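Quick one: structure for this chain?
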Amino acid sequence: MSKLKNIRNFSIIAHIDHGKTTLSDRLLEITNAVTKRDMQEQLLDSMDLERERGITIKSHFVRLEYKDTRTNEDYILNLIDTPGHIDFTYEVSRSLAACEGALLVVDATQGVEAQTVANTYLAMENDLTLIPVMNKIDLASNELEKSLDQVETVIGIDREEAINVSAKTGLGIDELIPAIIDRIEPPKGDIDKPLKALIFDSWFDEYRGVIILVKIIDGKINKNDKIKFLSNNANYDVNELGVFKPAPLPLKSLSVGEVGYIIGSIKNVSEVKIGDTITHLKVNTVEPMPGFKEPQPMVFSGFYPGEGSSHEELRDSIEKLTLNDSSFKYEPETSPILGIGFRCGFLGLLHKEIIQERLEREYDLSIVTTAPSVKYRVTNKKGEVFEIESPAGLPEPQQLEMIEEPYIEAIIITPEEHLGNIIKLLQNRRGIHKKMDYISSERVHLTYDLPLAEVLYDFFNKLKSISRGYASFDYEFKEYVESPLIKLDILINGDPVDALALIVHREKAYNVGNLIASKMKAVIPKQLFEVIIQAAIHKKVIARTVVKAMRKNVLAKCYGGDISRKMKLLDKQKKGKKRMKRIGKVDIPQEAFLAALEID
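Got it. Here's what it folds into:
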C-alpha cells in the first residue's frame, strides 16, 4: 500500500495546441515510464483523429513513479490527461475532481487564450492548486514577458510561480516534478472508512467489457469485491483492477488516494455514468460525490445512409460506436425525402464532427447529415412544458404559448485591431454584451451571452476569418431564455422537407428563407422537370426560386413545314414535363442540407 503523503494526483490543462500532450510525453520520459525505444509523439493520444487534429478526445491516465533525490523518498504521480475541447467540459470537470492540482500550460508565443480562462475557472471550482507552465520558450517568436503579465492579470497567479519550459526540447522540464511534489497537496481520505470511489472515465473493450477509471476517495477496493454504483444501484464483481504505467498493470487492491482501473464484466457502457460514485455492495452509508449529472446532448442532427450505404450498416455502426461513447445518443427517425435514418444527439459541434468522421472512417460508410439544431423548451396553451430536438416537434402556432432557447456565456480573447468586426459579428448573432477587459495593451477579453443556435451556423469559421485566426473562443451553457422563434419550412415542388426545416428568430426569417432558397437553387442539379423551391412560415410563402428544367431540343428533327407541326411537338413535351413533375423524385444532394449552415 502506498503512503498517502507520497501520492500526487494532477492534470494538465491548456488551450488547444498549447503543448499539453507534448508536455505529457516529456513527463513520461523523465520518469522512465516509457523506454526510448517505445516512445512516440502524442503517446497518450491513441486515436488517429486525436493525432491529426492535435486535440485530446478521450481522458487518459498514467501512473508515474519518481524518486526524489532531495529526500530519497519514492513518489507516485498520477497524471490524469483531460479532453481538450469545450464540448467535453463535463468530462474535464470530473477528471479535475479526481485531482488535487493542475499544470496550467500557456503558449509563450500566444499568451492566455479563451480556453485557458475557462479551464482555470473549472480548476478553481474544484479547489485545485495551479502551477503555471510557460511553454515554447525555445521559439524566437515567444513573448514571455507579455504572457507572464497576462497570467498575473487575467488568471490572478503571481508570475514568480511560473515555470518556463520547452516541452518539445525538454528545456526546464526537470523543475516540473519537484514543483508538483512541493506545491500540490497529497490526497485527503481515510483508509478505515467504507469504500468511496469517483468514476472519471470509462470505455468499452471488446474482450473484457467496460473498463472504468476511478479515484479512491476513502477506503480500499480488492480484487473479487462486490461493488455497486450509487446512481442506478447496478452491482458487479471486480474481476480485475490495476493501474496504467502506461501499459496496464494488474494489482490485488487500490487504496485511498490512488487512481486506477476496474473491470467487472460490464457489457454496456451506458450503465457506467461519469461522475458516479462506487462503494461496496452492502454499504448504505456512503453519500454520492457532489457535481454528478448525466451529460445532456446540446446539438442534434439527422444521420441517414448515403450512396452505397444501407440503413442496417448505419445502425450496426452507430450501435458499436455508442459502446465507447455513452454521451452520444440516437433514436430512429424517418424522412419522406431521405428515407430511414437516426436522430442523433451530441455534446457540441466538434462532438458531431468526430462521430461522423469515425463512422465514415472506421466503418467505411457514406452519411448524409441534416443541419444541426439545439434543444428548445416549449410551453403550450395548456401550460405543459416539454423539450423538442427538431423543428418537426414544434406544435402548431395556435397551440403555442412560448419557446425558450439555450443561451451560452461566451469568452472571446482577440487582438484589439479585430475588436470592431468581432463585436459586429456578435451583435449579428443576437449577442448580449456582459464584460470587456484589456488583458494587455493589444489583447481584449470579451464576455457575451449568445443563443447556442447562433453559434452552430458557421460562427467559428467567421470568427477565425475576421480575426485572421488570432481570436480564441470558449463557452459554457448558461440558461434557457424566451425568444420570438418560429418554424421556417422549406418546400420542394410544394412538399415540405422535414430535414431542411429550421427554427429561426422572427426578425431573421425572411433573410434566412431567401438565402437558403437561393443557395439550394445553386446546389440542386437540373432535373427533366421544373423544381420550385419555397421558404414558408405557417404555410405563407416568403421566398421562392425555380430550378429550370433540362430541355431536349424536340424541334431538331422538324425542319420546314407548317408552324402547327412545331407547336404540336412543343405541346407534347409540355404535357410530358407536367406528368414527370407529378411522379418525378427530386435528387437533393448533401450540399443542400449544408446550405443552411452557411447562412450569414
